[in-house]
Amino acid sequence: MGIRKLFESSFLGAMVLLLALSCNSNGSGNENGEKVSGNLVIFHAGSLSAPLKAIADSFNVLYPKVRVLTEASGSIDAARKITELKRECDIMASADYAVIDKLLVPEYGIENIKFATNEMAIVYSGQSRYKDEIDSLNWPEILAREDVSVGRSDPDSDPCGYRTLLVLQLSGMYYDSTFTTKIAKKDKRFIRPKETDLLALLDVGAVDYIFLYRSVAVQHGLPYLQLPTHINLGDPSYNDLYSKVSVDVRGSTPDSKMVMTGEAMVYGVTQLKEAPNPAAAGAFMEFLLSPTGGQAILDRMGQKPYSR
């Protein structure tokens, strides 16, 4: 399914709920009677670009006076915009809840709320070398080949980057570790700040394969190799295994490091304590976490909501 159809499906699927709610609201206030209008600034993970666009469109049916301004980057970079650059925003949504725990809460964020899940996949295109040969067993050998180019995101900027390294470490336990080590060391010229930047490289044929979240592949209608559960970081019941690997990434300052330990993927979101527009931020958070609102849209776009 193409991304336009996904947007249309998400929007239409929410219309019944939104129109019903709008019958009881003037679209400009929340349940506490506060006026909800003005700019709402959201820093977010690149992998949330498509879902947040659909969620914001549906949110604006209820709150037409709010202008939702989204800014995508790697989740670690998104947090640093707040902690280091002191930029104002209302909400930060991370591809890894641990980024919010380690960098934002409790100093900057009110609460870290888990709201979505994902899993790692290997994404390719119709022009990728050996696309008809690759499978869940031989992929390390194929990606390690000299004539195959591989893209991944920067582990110091983006959870998808360090999760790629975690997947390679886990894979080394089950496959020939010579191959997985070679993959981690090769093609560093194709490392990008965030995972969605890799899509352009794949589209023009600069790389054959990219490590990417399954949800992004689904949203863009791209073929992908589904990795075995014991290495794809997608199943909480495997957390004891996932936790055997870890990656050091840049911490809250250029000279510090923080350890990111393997675990099943869980996205987190926080409203900032100094949010310039707290009324709009609160209304958006409520809609994002609603089972019939943002959570339903995420599910329709290939990203499972987090089960509390």
Mean pLDDT level: 92
CATH topology of the largest domain: D-Maltodextrin-Binding Protein, domain 2
Portion in beta strands: 15-25%
SSE succession: HEHEHEHEEHEHHEHEHEHEEEHH
Give the strand line-up of the largest sheet: 2-1-3-12-4
What's the CATH C level of the largest domain? Alpha Beta
Rg is: 20 Å
Count all strands and give the number.
12
In helices, the fraction of residues equals 25-40%
Outline type: globular
CATH architecture of the largest domain: 3-Layer(aba) Sandwich
Largest sheet: 5 strands, mixed
SS field, number of helical segments: 12
Query: Superfamily at the CATH H level of the largest domain?
Result: Periplasmic binding protein-like II
Indicate the topology.
Elements: H1 3-22, E1 38-45, H2 49-62, E2 66-73, H3 75-83, E3 91-94, H4 97-103, E4 113-117, E5 120-124, H5 139-143, E6 150-153, H6 159-172, H7 177-185, E7 191-192, H8 198-203, E8 209-213, H9 214-219, E9 224-226, H10 239-242, E10 246-250, E11 257-261, E12 266-271, H11 278-289, H12 294-300
Q: How would you sum up this structure in a few lines?
A:
With 308 residues, the protein is α/β, with parallel strands linked by helices. The chain has 12 helices and 12 strands.
Walk me through this protein's architecture.
This protein has 308 residues and is an alpha/beta fold. It folds into two domains: 3-117 and 267-300, D-Maltodextrin-Binding Protein, domain 2; 120-250, Periplasmic binding protein-like II (D-Maltodextrin-Binding Protein, domain 2). Helices cover 37% and strands 19% of the residues. Strands 2-1-3-12-4 form a five-stranded mixed beta sheet, sandwiched between helices. A five-stranded mixed beta sheet has the order 7-6-8-5-9. A two-stranded antiparallel sheet has the order 10-11. The two termini are 29 Å apart. The model is unreliable at 3-7 and 14-27 (pLDDT under 50).
